[in-house]
């Protein structure tokens, strides 16, 4: 099955959801014009890492973000992996991914499970506890957020419940470790025999320059297409899920696993 995927490698205006919504709309329009099936946004696309303002800008229950994503999904007939946004659930704050289909229906929500100490996430946010698997545009998939990719066991937990044919990754990955971003993602693709579709932001905030290099990787770990490290871009890539089935058929790592040895 062929799937056309558009990744919005965008800069993010710190603490300004309306400005960022306008940017996302622009990319949704371009993705629709390119006849993409799926649009993928970066981590914290709505506000960036504006943690000091969380109490005023976090989305209560995620309602505003889900409403916005549903609206553009319907308007532009796009399935959307909605990056992530800061949400408030009860008295806790989370880094939350929403995925909506092209009818505007939510197909999953996920709170980032591994909080990133170098950006002080754990001082402000609570960590998620649940995996994130879903079917989008007819393709079984999983989704994780940024630092999560350094925990192959967490991704394996999701991928082993599959077969998931695509691993979606959304990030605000700094430029100084951008080589690691690429290597980690290629390894996750190879070991899980999956396509990896990864969206990173560009631009900067007070403390970080972000490194772009959004990319799509095939199940052999080869980069199909990659954006550069500096510029905003809409990366449009067509994948064929038959490629994943061929790789999985050759080396049956999921069948050959011995989970009893690992825990
Ligand atoms: O693991 C890294 O180097 C970057 C992680 C990160 O920036 C994040 O999780 O927000």
Automatic annotation (TrEMBL):
A GO molecular function held by the record: hydrolase activity
Keyword annotations of the record: Hydrolase
Record-linked PROSITE patterns: CN_HYDROLASE (PS50263)
Span of domain CN hydrolase: 3-241
Domain of life: Bacteria
InterPro entries: C-N_Hydrolase, C-N_Hydrolase_sf
Family designation: Belongs to the carbon-nitrogen hydrolase superfamily. NIT1/NIT2 family.
Record protein name field: Carbon-nitrogen family hydrolase
Organism the protein comes from: Leuconostoc holzapfelii
């Amino acid at each position: 099955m062929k799937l056309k995927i558009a990744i919005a490698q965008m800069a993010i205006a710190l603490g300004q959801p309306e400005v960022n919504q306008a940017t996302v709309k622009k990319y949704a329009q371009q993705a629709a014009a390119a006849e993409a099936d799926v649009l993928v946004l970066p981590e914290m696309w709505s506000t960036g890492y504006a943690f000091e303002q969380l109490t005023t800008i976090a989305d209560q229950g995620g309602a505003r973000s889900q409403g916005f994503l549903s609206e553009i999904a319907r308007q532009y007939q796009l399935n959307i992996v909605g990056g992530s946004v800061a949400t408030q659930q009860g008295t806790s704050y989370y880094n939350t991914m929403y995925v909506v289909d092209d009818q505007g229906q939510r197909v999953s929500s996920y709170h980032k499970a591994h909080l990133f100490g170098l950006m002080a996430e754990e001082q402000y946010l609570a960590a998620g506890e649940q995996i994130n698997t879903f079917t989008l545009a007819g393709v079984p998939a999983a989704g994780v957020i940024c630092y999560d990719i350094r925990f192959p066991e967490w991704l394996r937990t999701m991928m082993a419940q599959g077969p998931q044919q695509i691993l979606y990754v959304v990030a605000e990955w700094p430029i100084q470790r951008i080589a690691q971003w690429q290597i980690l993602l290629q390894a996750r693709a190879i070991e899980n025999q999956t396509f990896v579709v990864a969206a990173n932001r560009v631009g900067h905030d007070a403390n970080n320059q972000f490194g772009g290099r959004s990319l799509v990787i095939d199940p052999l770990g080869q980069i199909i297409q990659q954006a550069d490290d500096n510029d905003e871009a809409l990366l449009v890539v067509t994948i064929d899920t038959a490629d994943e089935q061929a790789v999985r058929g050759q080396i049956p790592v999921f069948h050959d696993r011995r989970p009893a040895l690992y825990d």
